[in-house]
Every structure is written in structure tokens, then in C-alpha cells.
Design brief:
Blueprint lengths: L1 H33 L5 H7 L1 H5 L8 H7 L15 H11 L18 H16 L9 H17 L4 H9 L6 H88 L3 H8 L7 H21 L1
Helix pairs in contact: 1-5, 1-6, 1-7, 1-8, 1-9, 6-7
Length: 300
């Protein structure tokens, strides 16, 4: 029984060593193939704005300092990047699809992205045994085959993988357990931060939709007010035109009546009162008469 437990503990340690040592190496070599070390600083500088959006939520301060060291420090080096940081960089600055990172890819998909994601989920399977630090032989063989195939497809030599399966073990179990726990903790923190970011985005989208709705309502209300104002102005113009037309027609009516009126009899009756020296009086009387007649006609 004790021998079986020791074997299962050795199985767990070998899987952890394979994943930690060769898994990290595979991801780093793949990243270096996409962004060679000589260009890394320039690439990070070019993508600083997009990476800054992930700071505090996905990338913590120590990781940020590895990407953008202080002026007095050494330039960024992928050898200092852990698996979690490398995965973040793969997702954001390596031109890989933004989807397909949240589920184990099918066995038929052997693309670079699929193998990167596959390593993450295989790591989680090993972490599931971290409490007992034991893996039975059948599970060991299955996981070893899956991990080794993925690593070889990410350009880890087959003989390096085979050596780790048979080489002697030292007192390193605690080291790998600690590393696995750190990886798992960082991943969980990243997931929580991504969920918060997603909630923030949804909240922002909701606010934008509400503001858009308010703007549209205000726009419709303003359009109706302008329409009503134009209608009132148009009606007022029509009323003014109507009044002007009525006044004009009334004036024309009075002029026509005055033109048709015969003043001869009136003039003769006034002439009878004419005496020498009374011309001025006569003219005033005639003027007064015409004014009175005009007023009478206008009142009609």
C-alpha cells in the first residue's frame, strides 16, 4: 500500500515537472517565434495602450514591471514571463483569434492556439490532484500522453519529454505544488477581473443605450416643438395676410364708392352761399364737407 502511494505521488510530481518545466518552455519558445526577443521591447511599446487596459484587472503590478521595466532596469525578457502572463500576451498581442480561449479544444484541432489553450486545461486537470499530490497510473498515462503530444507540437523535442518520464526525482514535489497553486490562483484572479470588466462593459452599454434613448426622445420632442412653432408662425402669417387683404379690399371699396358719387348738387347748394371776400371760408367749408362724407362712407 505504501509502495502504491509512493508511485502515485511520483506520478503527480512527474506530471507537474513536465507541465511546469516543458510547458513554460513551450509557451515561451512559441511566443519568441511570434515576437523575437530582439523586437520584444518595440512590440510591447507599440501595444502599450491595449495592455494598459488590462492593468490591475488582468495584469498585476509585478507582471507589468516585467513588461515595462523602469528606465534604470533591464529591457523586457520573455524568460521572466510566467505561463499566465504569456497566455495573456498570446490573447492580446499575437494576432490570434479573440475567441476559443474558454473551452478545451477538440482533439482534431492541433493549431498553435488550440495547443496553448489545451495546456491550460491539462494544467487544471493536474491541479485537481494537488490536495493529495497523487495520480493513479491510468490517469498518469492518459495525461502524460496528452501533455507530451501537445508539447511536441509546440516544438519541444520528444526525447526531452521522454527523459522526464524516466529520470530520477529529487525532493521537488513541494516546489511544483507551489507553482501550480500560484498558476491556479493567478488564473482565478484573472477570470474574476475579466468578469468584472465584462460587467463594467455591460453597464456602460446599458448607460449608452439609455442616453441614446433620451437623446432620441429629446430630438423627437424638439422636432415636434419646431413643427408646432412653424405651424403657428404660418397661421399667424396667414392671419396677417388676411387682415392686410381685407384692409386693402375695404380701401378699394371706399375709393370705388367715392369715384361713383355725384357731388354736383352738393357743390351747387354751397355755391349759393358764396359772396365776394368769402373764398377762404368757402374752401374750408368744401374741405370740411369732403372729410365728413369720407367718414360717413368709411363707417358704412
Amino acid at each position: 500500500m505504501a509502495s502504491a502511494n509512493l508511485q502515485e505521488k511520483a506520478n503527480f510530481t512527474r506530471l507537474s515537472r513536465l507541465l511546469v518545466n516543458k510547458g513554460t518552455e513551450a509557451l515561451r519558445n512559441t511566443f519568441d517565434a511570434v515576437h523575437p526577443p530582439a523586437n520584444l521591447q518595440a512590440v510591447l511599446a507599440a501595444n502599450r495602450a491595449s495592455l494598459l487596459k488590462l492593468k490591475f484587472r488582468v495584469i498585476n503590478n509585478p507582471q507589468w514591471d516585467l513588461l515595462f521595466p523602469p528606465p534604470s532596469g533591464n529591457p523586457p525578457n520573455s524568460k521572466t514571463f510566467d505561463v499566465t502572463l504569456l497566455t495573456v500576451l498570446f490573447r492580446n498581442i499575437c494576432g490570434l483569434p479573440s475567441t476559443g480561449w474558454s473551452a478545451m479544444p477538440p482533439d482534431t484541432d492541433r493549431s498553435m492556439q488550440a495547443n496553448i489553450v489545451r495546456l491550460k486545461f491539462l494544467r487544471n486537470e493536474i491541479y485537481a490532484h494537488v490536495t493529495l499530490t497523487q495520480v493513479d497510473n491510468a490517469t498518469f498515462e492518459s495525461l502524460w500522453q496528452k501533455i507530451s503530444q501537445t508539447l511536441v507540437e509546440l516544438n519541444i523535442p520528444q526525447h526531452d519529454v521522454d527523459d522526464l518520464k524516466t529520470s530520477p526525482l529529487g525532493r521537488e514535489e513541494e516546489i511544483y505544488v507551489k507553482i501550480l497553486e500560484e498558476w491556479k490562483s493567478q488564473e482565478e484572479d484573472s477570470i474574476k477581473m475579466l468578469e468584472c470588466l465584462s460587467d463594467d462593459v455591460k453597464s456602460m452599454e446599458s448607460s449608452i443605450n439609455r442616453l441614446t434613448q433620451i437623446a432620441e426622445e429629446n430630438r423627437d420632442g424638439m422636432k415636434q416643438k419646431i413643427k408646432n412653432s412653424i405651424t403657428r408662425h404660418s397661421q399667424a402669417s396667414k392671419d396677417t395676410n388676411y387682415q392686410n387683404n381685407c384692409s386693402k379690399e375695404n380701401d378699394e371699396y371706399l375709393l370705388q364708392k367715392l369715384a361713383k358719387h355725384n357731388f354736383k348738387s352738393k357743390i351747387r347748394s354751397k355755391v349759393k352761399f358764396f359772396h365776394p371776400g368769402t373764398r377762404e371760408w368757402f374752401l374750408k367749408e368744401v374741405e370740411r364737407f369732403f372729410k365728413n362724407e369720407y367718414k360717413k362712407e368709411y363707417k358704412k
